[in-house]
Structure formats: C-alpha cells, structure tokens
Specification:
Elements (H helix, E strand, L loop, with lengths): L10 H6 L3 H30 L2 H17 L1 H11 L1 H22 L7 H13 L4 H12 L3 H29 L6 H20 L1 H4 L11 H39 L5 H23 L6 H19 L5 H12 L2 H15 L5 H26 L5 H29 L9 H8 L39
Length: 460
C-alpha cells in the first residue's frame, strides 16, 4: 500500500493516498476523546465529591497509568496487530469511562471507587496516536511525503486538543460534567471501530514471533531512541512550565484568568503554523541534525519570553516559542520511526509520546517550586535552559550512537533501502511489523498538542 511521491509532495497528496482520508478521519474521531476526557473527568469528580483534592488525586492516578503504561500498550499493538490489541483496549476503555460517568453522575460515590475506576480506565487507554503514525509509515513509502503526513497529523491533533475543552464547556451548559466522560467513551469506541475496519489497518500484519537477529539489533536501536526521547521530554518540560508561568505572569500584572487562555492559544497557533511550514519544506539536513536545533530555538524563544514587558508582547513571544514545538515533536517521531527495528515502531513512537507527557507534568511541578521564589524572568530562563540542555544531551547521545551502533537500521539506511529496491513489487505493508509502521500522541490522550501533559494526552 506504500505510495511513492513525485516532485514536491503536498499535504493534498497525503490525503490522496488510498484509504488515507478514511483511516485518518476515524483516528481523529477517536483521538478527539483525549481532548475532552481530562477536563470532563476533573469536573465530574469535583461535582460528585465536592473536593478539589479528590479530583486532583483521581486525575493524577488516571494520568499516571495512562502515560506510563503507554509503551507497554503500544508493544501489544506491535506484537498482535491493531485489530487484535487496539480494538479490545478501546472497547474496554470506553466501557470503563462509561462506568466512571455513571458513578460520578450524582454525588455520593466513595472517592476510592472513583479512583479505582480511573486507574483501570487509564491502564487501558488505547494508543491511537502512535498507531496512526505507524499506519502512516505503512501507507507512505517516500520520506518527504511521510514528513508531511506526520506534520498534518500533529497539527490536526493540536486542533483537537484546543477544541476539546471548548466542546466540554458547551456540553456542561446543558448536561452534567459526567456526560463529557460518557461522550469521551463513545468517541474513542466509535473512532477505533472505524479505524480498524479501514483496509489500511485491516491488512497490517502483526510482528508476531521474533525473527533471528532481531534481539541483536535492540541495544543499538535503544541507544538511537535516546535522542528523540530526550528532546521530547525537554519539550514537554518546557510546555508544562509555560502553562504555569503564563498564569503567574497574568496574576502579577493583575489580569484576569481569561487572558491566560488567549496567551496559551497563541502558543498553540504558533505550534500549528510551525508544524505546517516544517512539513512543507524539503529539508536538506537530516532529522538527526534538525532535532537539537529545534530544541535550541524553543529554549531561546522561551528565555526571551521572560523579558516581555506586557501581555501582548508575551503572547507574541510565546507564539514564537510555539513555532518550534510541533516541528520538534514531528521530527522526534520521524527519528523514532527511522531508528526503530521492525515490529517495534509503534512502541518507539509511544516512548516519545510518553516522554512529552511525563515531561509536561514534571515541568509544571518543578516550575511551581520556583515561582514566587525567583523572578518570573529567571523562571522563563530556567525553562528555556531545559530545552537547551535537552539539545545538548541529544547531540552528545547521537554522536555516541553513531560511534557505537554500526550500520543504521532505520528506513533511510542504505542497507534497508537496497533491500527494498531489490524487491520492486514489495510494499512496506508486506513487512510483518505492524502497526509496525511508525512512530502521537498523544498514545493518546498529547503532544503533539502543546498541552500534552494532561491525563488525556497519553494516547496521542
């Protein structure tokens, strides 16, 4: 099913690939759930218990299980295929969200019950984002076209994570917050059913039994994965810090909380624009070179944002920082795809996604210890320094990998390209690696939303 490109591939060319629109649309329907679920669960549990502490604890449990078990769930999809692994996960997740919605519809349910259901639901969060990126890798044979596919995927996800809370806000005007939790379950169930029914997904074969030589390749692949994971974690830390820093900036200047949403919207807008432009450029440099440079750009822009004299200037500076976010995450997913061995590419993408989401949560917690103790300009500089450090570590890790890994195993490897050329009738789908095709989000519920730290973003 692999489709080569000619000339300069466009975003329209991505959507003209057979089954691409159908598959991508179904995945986006399911992933909209991740833009809705976090706020819905928070509001529903707060309404049911009357306690922000309980709501925060339930969200922390839901988010932790959703984020940190993401690579394990992605490994199941790689090994058994989307139909055998992703669909049962999604249906169980939807059922558990329905249970949580029923339990929180009215006050009176013990908090321990809500926490237990939230943990169970988080543990089953289906990795729709990584699996969709895997399928892009199966559908698209040309690296330039794949870059555009990933960029389109990331920007669309950005839109979902911005529009999701708006939908929740509209829904709670006419129904209890628990209705948003139930809607999340319906969306992920319906979206996943449509996704696995697509011929692009239905015909993908699982990796199945390990083949000789695969284990020998794992150490070098793991070393190569360090670079995208480190940068993704750095981006996540920065994004988690920015949310709190913008709130503190507005409070320090006596602005209302409503202006915070506009500044963060500027961050999302900058990320969307950057993602689209990144996907449209025929880069002469490799992803390995671009990735740390994008992290440097993000770090410098964040450090400069701390010097903003007013809210308008801050919004512009944050938009400039956002300009590097989607390109950095898209490039991290591409690099993870290149370095992953056959049969592990969904899992590789899930590691990047987990790094973003975990980094975002850690960034919010860490910067919270500094705000109030240090000037905000210094806090912004510290956030930028995290991205610069990630770029430095990524560059050093990349050199170490290049020296010790031997022949590159990724799709751009001469050896792999030679093998593919030797079999002109063979498409990428004939490989036994499954959802073995590619590097989300934002597992789903992500970044590449710029707000990947929410519990709902782990499946991106």
């Amino acid at each position: 099913m692999s489709t080569p490109s000619t000339g300069r591939p466009s975003y329209a060319a991505v959507l003209r690939i057979p089954y691409a629109r159908r598959t991508f649309g179904a995945a986006l329907l399911g992933r909209l759930s991740y833009g809705i679920v976090s706020l819905s669960v928070m509001l529903a549990v707060t309404r049911a218990t009357g306690s922000y502490t309980v709501a925060g604890t339930v969200m922390a449990l839901f988010g932790a299980t959703s984020v940190f078990l993401s690579p394990a769930r992605a490994a199941l999809v790689d090994r058994h295929g989307p139909r055998a692994a992703l669909l049962p996960m999604a249906l169980l997740y939807a059922a558990l969200l329905g249970t949580l919605a029923a339990a929180s519809w009215r006050p009176g349910v013990p908090p321990v019950v809500l926490g237990a259901v939230a943990v169970a639901a988080g543990s089953c969060t289906p990795p729709l984002g990584p699996t969709m990126r895997a399928v892009w890798g199966e559908l698209v044979g040309d690296r330039l076209l794949l870059q555009r596919a990933y960029s389109l995927d990331g920007v669309a996800e950005e839109v979902l994570f911005v529009s999701g809370p708006l939908l929740v806000g509209a829904l709670v005007q006419i129904a209890p917050p628990a209705a948003g939790v139930a809607l999340s379950g319906l969306l992920v169930g319906a979206g996943t059913l449509a996704f696995v029914a697509s011929p692009a997904v239905r015909d993908v074969r699982p990796s199945g039994v390990r083949r000789p030589g695969r284990d020998a390749a794992r150490p070098s692949a793991a070393r190569a994965l360090v670079r995208p994971v480190v940068v993704a974690a750095g981006v996540g830390l920065c994004l988690g810090a920015v949310d709190l820093l913008v709130l503190a900036f507005a409070g320090e200047r006596h602005h209302g909380d409503d202006v915070v949403a506009w500044v963060l919207a500027a961050l999302s807008a900058g990320s969307a624009v950057g993602g689209l432009l990144n996907g449209a450029v025929d880069w002469r440099t490799s992803a390995r070179v671009r990735l740390p440079l994008l992290a440097v750009g993000l770090g410098l822009a964040l450090a400069a944002a701390g010097l903003a004299p007013g809210l308008g200037t801050l919004a512009a500076a944050v938009a400039c920082a956002g300009f590097f976010v989607a390109p950095a995450l898209t490039t991290a997913y591409l690099l993870a795809d290149e370095t992953a061995p056959e049969g592990s590419r969904t899992q590789a993408g899930a590691w990047v996604n987990t790094a973003v989401n975990a980094g975002s949560s850690g960034g919010t917690a860490a910067i919270g210890l500094l705000v109030g103790r240090l000037p905000l300009s210094v806090c912004f500089a510290v956030s930028g320094a995290v991205a610069l450090l990630a770029a430095l570590v990524s560059g050093w890790g990349g050199r170490a990998t290049a020296e010790g890994a031997g022949p590159h195993m990724g799709p751009e490897s001469p050896e792999r390209e030679g093998d593919r050329a030797a079999e002109p009738g063979r498409s990428r789908r004939s490989r036994p690696a499954v959802a073995s095709g590619a590097p989300s989000a934002a597992e789903g519920p992500a970044p590449s939303s710029v707000h990947g730290g929410s519990a709902g973003s782990s499946s991106r």
